[in-house]
Model the fold of this input.
Amino acid sequence: MDLASRTVFAHEALVRGPGGEGAMTVLSQLDEKNCYRFDQACRVKAIKGAAELGIGQAVSINFLPNAIYKPELCIRTTLAAAKAHGFPLDRIIFEVTEGERVKDGPWFAEILREYKRCGFKTAIDDFGAGYAGMKLLADFQPDIIKLDMDLIRDIDTHRARQAIVRSLVRLCEELRIQVIAEGIETTAERDFLWDTGIHLMQGYLFAKPAFRAIGRVPDAAFDVGMRRAA
Done:
């Protein structure tokens, strides 16, 4: 959500099993033989689904960097899907979780640069929780970083998390990177992050995942600071 404009900033395409199983249940079944095909299938499915739902905002798609051997070949499938379904490239965000151990850091940065060159936006998900962190930022500056929910949880009462997030916001301002805070569940978390300068937020406070549907956001979710003012 973009709280500054009270609008939806982007939708994230999530992986679920046929019975509604969570992402980890699905991802645990991947190996070197099938992860490339799975990664490609998810991209096409996400773009097709976004077009069918008439989504007019950006769509964020997770990808598996260790499944990619030649980024220019992997991108062809994505470009074909976007063209087939009339979905603009500049509304596709490719994000990778910082928690995934990348075998070759410089190669990973090269993959992201190739995506950016083709017109896609790039994001690092779960920032502050995994293996990449500051080293990746030194090699490549994505369009967006998404702060991990463990940094966000109860941040309104946690001084150490507050200091870390303030520092990351200042760093990203200098690097011209947008910041999204993930996992917002309370108005207190939302209000603190707003006061810190973060206006892009994601979490159950705004909407829960919906199966083949667009989440609905209550108007009250945008009312920053209203409870404090009352």
